[in-house]
């Protein structure tokens, strides 16, 4: 079992009620659900921050690659049309 620690969190009453209801419905503890929610949130936020940092590094590099918005839209429309024809 991984090492765990205790943390106190203040929640708005409606959020606490929703958590209690979900815990009851899923037969899981509130602590388990809160821990899972925090882990999921961190995964998404860390990924997003890393993607932004990577994009900034690319933009600041010697030979950054940029694409015109309209060109991207045109390419995506062509790819979508091809997929629809083959589906």
TrEMBL record:
Question: InterPro entries under this entry?
Answer: Arc_rbn_hlx_hlx, Non-func_TypeII_TA_Antitoxin, Ribbon_hlx_hlx
What GO terms in the biological process aspect are recorded for it? Answer: regulation of DNA-templated transcription
Question: Which stretches are annotated as coiled coil?
Answer: none
List the Gene3D superfamilies hit by this protein, alphabetically.
Answer: Met repressor-like (1.10.1220.10)
CDD domains given in the database record? RHH_CopAso-like (cd22233)
Per its UniProt record, what SUPFAM superfamilies does this chain match? Ribbon-helix-helix
Q: What is this protein called?
A: Helix-turn-helix protein, CopG
Supply the PANTHER family for this chain.
PTHR40688, RIBBON-HELIX-HELIX PROTEIN COPG DOMAIN-CONTAINING PROTEIN (PTHR40688:SF2)
């Amino acid at each position: 079992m991984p090492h765990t620690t205790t943390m106190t969190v203040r929640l708005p009453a409606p959020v606490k009620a929703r958590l209690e209801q979900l815990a009851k419905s899923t037969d899981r503890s509130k602590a388990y659900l809160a821990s899972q929610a925090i882990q999921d949130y961190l995964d998404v936020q860390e990924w997003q921050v890393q993607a932004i940092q990577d994009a900034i590094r690319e933009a600041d590099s010697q030979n950054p690659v940029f694409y015109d918005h309209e060109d991207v839209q045109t390419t995506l429309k062509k790819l979508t049309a091809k997929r629809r024809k083959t589906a």
